[in-house]
Design brief:
Strand content: under 5%
Helix content: 55-70%
Radius of gyration: 25 Å
Low-confidence stretches: 1-5
Strand order of the largest sheet: 1-2
Largest sheet: 2 strands, antiparallel
Length: 499
């Protein structure tokens, strides 16, 4: 292990490595330039968000910081969209390319922060490249609304680099920069709230500050970071409550939440190791998955126990594993927001701990007899990941392609069918009606779907079908005056009153 001062040095080789990693990311993600907006979150976050479509203004910035948008408080992300509109207009191409630039920048900062924290050049490069090229991150890059993810990661990794500088040089300026960058990460997305806990883990290894620095000093220096995390968590709940997007225990039982949280961790690990079957939407099972949760929970406990037993000889195992699990906690659904069981984007920050533990362990256990095979095997794995990423990017061309892919992966479910119908309604109402009817077979009591069918039928000129769809909606919601008025209006179009 390098000394504290040696860790902080950035060499010319580091810049060459960083440039190669960035070029590999650009090559894998070049298809995002051809992707468009999709009909989930992009409307509410971007092209139908009045705060964004008016471009960058003082009133818009104030609104971004004082008013939740789409049940989220992500002011820095909202301001970045405003700046995009002022610069490029509502250009999906420009916004996708900017997401790619933030992702590439985040990967580069991850490499430099890992290099500064551990002193290991090639292991740090491998961790960063796995992050940069893994197809599970396509969702965060190819989905314009997920600008909040790539922005949050960019500032989080920049914060880690400044924190490494603070520890190495005991620089007050380094500490202050880390605080500002952490605040920026939280303003982009609250996902970074667990980062101060990760710093405590890094204090144990690789920084080895536990024992050298008084425990209370380690806590005091991070107290402002914990305070920012607490404030941001409260603001996130306030924003979610503003649109009643947080289900109660009556909607989703504690047992169902716990079982989903446990199984989600297992699914995330599998997706990182074998990235097949990635989808934009994994429907929540609602009912507890008790047997599967118990099995996966037992495996997770065994892995945690093994990492703890090896903490002295393999300290990176417990550090990386706890970073991975800890940074997933805000998104495991214990406080459920939305209707998804899990989401690929939730691993964006957390996976760094996973790769950290895996890469350092493989480097330790790699047989010396095949030492020369390290580089070609790593290159082959990264090439495969880059190819899978390029293929996954093609799935995100439009709402219809991404939801059709999700339907193939997850099987028939009402949520995906609804979104698929909505995406087709922009240019093919016949297909849209077909998908909404399939959704109604799964959830018959959906007045919204009948109204969607009625509107599509009316656009097609099929007035009797539109009238019947409104009637079905009125059966579900008998007191809805709007549905009754629509039936009366269409009836007059079908049979105009006699003079």
């Amino acid at each position: 292990m390098l000394s504290t001062n040696e860790r902080g040095k950035t060499t010319l080789n580091d810049w060459w490595i960083g440039m190669v990693v960035v070029l590999a990311i650009v090559a894998a993600y070049q298809g995002v330039a051809e992707c468009g907006f999709i009909n989930l979150d992009d409307p509410s976050h971007v092209y139908l968000n009045p705060a964004v479509t008016q471009g960058l203004s003082w009133d818009g910035v104030v609104s971004a910081f004082t008013t939740p948008h789409a049940s989220l408080w992500v002011p820095l992300t909202t301001v970045s969209f405003m700046a995009d509109v002022s610069t490029f207009g509502l250009s999906a191409r420009a916004m996708h390319l900017e997401n790619l630039a933030w992702h590439a920048g985040a990967t580069l900062l991850l490499y430099f922060s890992m290099r500064a924290l551990t002193g290991s050049q090639w292991r740090s490069a491998l961790v960063a490249t796995l992050f940069g090229l893994h197809p599970i991150n396509v969702e965060s890059v190819a989905w314009i609304a997920e600008r909040k993810n790539v922005l949050c990661a960019f500032f989080s990794f920049a914060m880690l680099r400044c924190w490494a500088s603070y520890v190495q040089k005991r620089s007050a300026w380094g500490w202050f920069c880390a605080l500002l960058l952490f605040a920026a990460a939280l303003l982009a997305k609250p996902m970074a709230v667990t980062l101060p806990f990760a710093l405590l883990l890094l204090d144990w290894w690789p920084l080895k500050r536990w024992g050298r620095v008084r425990w209370w000093s380690l806590l005091v220096e991070k107290a402002p970071l914990f305070a920012l995390s607490f404030i941001t968590s409260r603001l996130a709940l306030w924003a979610a409550d503003s649109r009643e997007t947080v289900p109660t225990l009556a909607d989703l039982t504690l047992e169902a939440r716990l079982s989903n949280a446990i199984t989600s961790i297992g699914d995330y690990v599998l997706d990182l190791l074998w990235p097949s079957g990635l989808a934009i939407l994994y429907p929540h099972p609602v009912a507890p998955q008790s047997s599967r949760a118990l099995l996966i929970g037992a495996v997770l406990v065994a892995l945690t126990f093994a990492a703890w037993r090896l903490r002295r000889s393999h300290p990176w195992l417990i550090v990386g594993w706890l970073m991975f699990g800890g940074m997933l906690v805000p998104s495991l659904g214990l406080v459920q927001a939305g209707a998804q069981a899990r989401a690929d984007r939730f691993t964006y920050l957390a996976q760094v701990g996973f790769w950290f533990a895996l890469v350092w362990t493989l480097a330790r256990w790699w047989p010396k007899s095949v030492d020369r095979a390290r580089f070609p095997i790593a290159a082959a794995v990264l090439t495969i990941l880059g190819g899978l990423t390029a293929r996954q990017v093609s799935v995100w061309q439009s709402g219809s392609t991404v939801f059709a892919h999700s339907l193939r992966v997850t099987g028939p479910n009402a949520q995906t069918l609804d979104f698929l119908g909505a995406s087709y309604s922009r240019y093919d109402d016949h297909k849209a009606i077909g998908y909404w009817l399939k959704s109604l077979l799964l959830i018959p009591a959906s007045a919204e779907n009948w109204v969607n069918i009625a509107a599509a039928a009316e656009r097609l000129g099929d007035l009797p079908r539109a009238r019947e769809a409104y009637r079905q909606a009125l059966v579900i919601e008998p007191g809805n005056q709007e549905f009754a008025a629509s039936i009366e209006r269409i009836q007059k179009l079908i049979e105009p009153p006699k003079p």
